[in-house]
Design brief:
The mean pLDDT is about 90. It is built from 6 helices and 2 strands, in the order ββαααααα. The radius of gyration is 21 Å and the shape is elongated. Strands 1-2 form a two-stranded antiparallel sheet. Helix content is about 50%, strand content about 5%. By secondary structure, it is mainly alpha-helical. It has a domain of about 110 residues. Helix 1 runs antiparallel to helix 2. A hairpin with a 6-residue loop joins strand 1 and strand 2. It binds zinc ion (ZN). Zinc ion binds next to loops.
Length: about 160
């Protein structure tokens, strides 16, 4: 007799999970990400968020060490939502930065799926549209060319193939 990986109770011969428990886990996980996304979008109280995710997780068999992941996935979804119209306006950027700072996330945390890069691109595009020269892109790699006086770096894509 196998025990359910979610509730720990017997799940029947050759079975590792109850269908209802798995369902509950998945629904909880999605609800956690949605909750985090809403707060990153600026809806709801940021100081209550971790506690709310903690409670949801407990009810839905989600391990407490997945909370950070849910917080990050929520931020990523908020970025993609704000970027749907093509760029990131200043208030949108502020909300996303405030959320990331509140939880102490690093660029590394936020760029596992390349979303931090898209966030910066969105802000760079806004500045271009506003007629400013964006200065926020920094590259660690040396560039294979020199700038003229009137030129500055807006963006560099690495490892680009060309023909
Ligand atoms: Zn179960």
């Amino acid at each position: 007799m196998g025990n359910c990986i979610y509730c720990g109770k017997p799940a029947g011969f050759f079975r590792k999970r109850h269908r209802e428990c798995e369902e509950r886990y998945k629904n909880t996980w999605n609800a956690m990400i949605l909750k985090a996304k809403e707060v990153a979008l600026g809806v709801g109280q940021i100081m209550n968020l971790e506690g709310e995710l903690h409670n949801l997780a407990k009810e839905g068999y989600v391990s407490q060490d997945k909370i950070k992941e849910a917080l990050i996935l929520g931020w990523e979804e908020a970025v993609l939502h704000f970027l749907e119209d093509g760029n990131l306006d200043a208030q949108e950027e502020e909300k996303l930065v405030a959320y990331a700072e509140y939880f102490g996330f690093t660029q590394n945390d936020l760029d596992k799926r390349g979303i931090y890069t898209r966030f910066v691109q969105g802000a760079v595009l806004r500045e271009v549209l506003e007629g400013k020269v964006p200065q926020r892109f920094k590259t660690a790699d040396p560039l294979p060319f020199n700038f003229q006086k009137s030129e500055s770096l807006v963006w560099a894509f690495s490892n680009v193939k060309y023909y």
